[in-house]
Design a protein that fits this description.
Blueprint (H helix, E strand, L loop, with lengths): L2 H10 L5 E5 L13 E5 L8 H13 L5 E4 L4 H12 L3 E4 L4 H8 L12 H11 L19 H7 L5 E6 L11 H12 L4 E5 L4 H13 L3 E3 L6 H8 L4 E5 L2 H8 L4 E4 L19 E2 L31 H12 L1
Parallel strand pairs: 1-2, 3-4, 5-6, 5-8, 6-7, 8-9, 9-10
Length: 326
């Protein structure tokens, strides 16, 4: 979710160098951004604990940093930014809006309204540091050229490509796999379409391999490509269908038309994919389940809300996608 914010920042402030500090596996997300450099945090070894974070602080200090933007606001980043603050660096931190989110997700006296998006909360951190930033007129990168190793898996692009990422961190945010199979089956019957399945982890790969075998025009790419290649492939999609999860943000940051399926979470929490119309959010029956959202991240389920996504008919999902892609 930070990528489109940084893209807008570097366009507005092309002479400012940004150093993104995060875990190594996320480096490919930032490689095509102008004047953005990546610094790997080895939180499992070298930068582990208070002592490790102090080592990290000294390493970062050597980069001649002028200001620190903490857009994470967790324990590690709090410790790290405190080191900078004690050394008289200019520091700004994200306001996560915890009170508003609590009001949105509680059962009694729920305040059901759209909260500030996480993208705008990120942008606010840079604004606190004195930088103007406008996210209302975004630019997106061009489609990446598909390398031969991807084409060997997908084949040349002669049809419209639909990406489907059917998994999420929590089951409460995941469309039942038998429902998703119905979506895939109906889409795969259209010979003008090719469905590309995305996922990660051994169990997910096994499930998607079985789906690939059952239906025509379906290719499973899970477990076959790395993140950098996955981003390359996503940039060539005509649309993406995802849960409220990472793949939705990957496709949205690349300007791909992104549809999201929502369970006990809701776009009002501020975590909808960047620059996507609200109509692209496919929601459960809110009359039947009025306490939605009952969680920000999907880790807390209201009693009786275990099967909310079953109220979304596969036919509705297919219709949304076909209407858009045609």
């Amino acid at each position: 979710m930070l990528v489109p914010v940084l893209r807008a920042f570097t366009k507005k402030h092309p002479t400012i160098k940004i150093t993104v500090l995060s875990k190594p596996f996320l480096k490919p997300l930032f490689e095509n951004l102008n004047n953005v450099h990546f610094f790997e945090a080895d939180v499992a070894n070298k930068h582990k604990g208070i002592t490790g974070l102090y080592k990290l602080f000294k390493e970062l200090k050597g980069l001649n940093i002028d200001a620190v933007a903490d857009i994470h606001n967790v324990l590690r980043s709090t410790v790290l930014r405190t080191f900078f603050k004690l050394s008289f660096f200019k520091v700004a931190v994200i306001d996560k809006g915890r009170a508003e989110k609590k009001a949105l997700t509680r059962t009694n006296n729920k305040v059901f309204k759209q909260l500030k998006t996480t993208h705008e909360r990120y942008a606010d951190v840079f604004r606190k540091l004195g930088f103007e930033l406008d996210l209302s007129n975004p630019e997106f990168p061009k489609k990446e050229r598909l390398p031969s190793e991807i084409i060997k898996i997908t084949g040349e692009k002669t049809k419209k490509w639909i990406g489907i990422a059917p998994f999420a961190q929590y089951n409460s945010k995941m469309y039942p796999i038998n429902f998703m199979e119905k979506v895939i089956e109906q889409l795969s019957n259209d010979t003008n379409l090719k469905i590309l399945l995305f996922g990660g982890g051994k169990k997910e790969v096994e499930i998607l391999n079985l789906v690939e075998e059952k239906y025509p025009n379906v290719v499973n790419v899970a477990g076959k490509i790395k993140l950098k290649q996955e981003l390359n492939l996503i940039s060539n999609l005509d649309c993406m269908l995802s849960m409220d999860s990472g793949n939705a943000h990957f496709s949205a940051m690349l300007g791909i038309n992104t549809f999201t399926l929502w369970g006990i979470t809701h776009p009002f929490t501020g975590f909808a994919p960047f620059n996507q119309p609200f109509e692209n959010a496919i929601l459960p029956n809110l009359k039947k389940y009025p306490n939605i959202p009952c969680s920000i991240y999907g880790n807390k389920i209201c009693d009786g809300y275990e099967n909310v996504m079953e109220s979304i008919a596969p036919e509705k999902v297919v219709e949304k996608i076909l209407t858009s892609i045609n």
